[in-house]
Amino acid sequence: MDKRSIFFVIILLMPLFLTSCNFNSQKVIELRNEVRFLETEISSLKAAPGFAFGEAFEYVDAGDYSEAIRILKELQTDFPDWNKEIVAKFIEGYSDKQKQ
Fold first, then answer.
1. Are the C-beta atoms of 98 and 66 separated by less than 8 Å?
2. Fewest C-beta atoms under 10 Å: which of 75, 81, 89, 97?
3. C-alpha distance from residue 91 to each of 48, 81, 83, 97 (Å)
4. pTM for the predicted model, two decimal places
5. Pairwise CA distance, residues 49 & 82, whole Å
6. Is the Cβ–Cβ distance between 97 and 86 less than 8 Å?
7. Residue scoring higher pLDDT (2 or 85)
8. Tell me: the pLDDT tens digits for 44-80?
C-alpha cells in the first residue's frame, strides 16, 4: 500500500471513530446526570424526619442508646410535630435503658 491508500483508509475510518466517541461521550453525560439526580434524591431523603428516625434505630441496634437519644431529641427540635408522642416515648424508653 502506498501513502495515498493509507491516507484514504484513515480518512474513511475517522468518522467511525468519531461517532463511537460521541456515543460514549453522550452516555457519560447521561450517566453523570443520573448520578446528580440520585444525589439530589438522597439529600432530600436525608433531610426527611423518617431518615433521622431510622438512623436512631441503627444506633439502638448497635446498643449506643446515648447517640440514638441525641438523634431523637434533634428530631424533636427539627420536626416538633412529626410523631411527637412516639418520638417522646422512644426517648423515654431508651433513656431508661441507658441508665441500666
1. yes
2. 81
3. 19, 15, 12, 10
4. 0.59
5. 7
6. no
7. 85
8. 888 889 889 999 989 998 888 899 999 999 999 989 8
| SS3 labels along the chain | CCHHHHHHHHHHHHHHHHHHHHHHHHHHHHHHHHHHHHHHHHHHHHCCHHHHHHHHHHHHHCCCHHHHHHHHHHHHHHCCCCCHHHHHHHHHHHHHHHHC
Exposure string for 37-69, b = 16+ CB within 10 A, e = fewer: eeeeeeeeeeeeeeebbeebeebbeeeebebbb
Distance CA 91, CA 71 (A): 10
Q: Amino acid letter at 48?
A: A
| Cell digits of residue 59 | 444506633
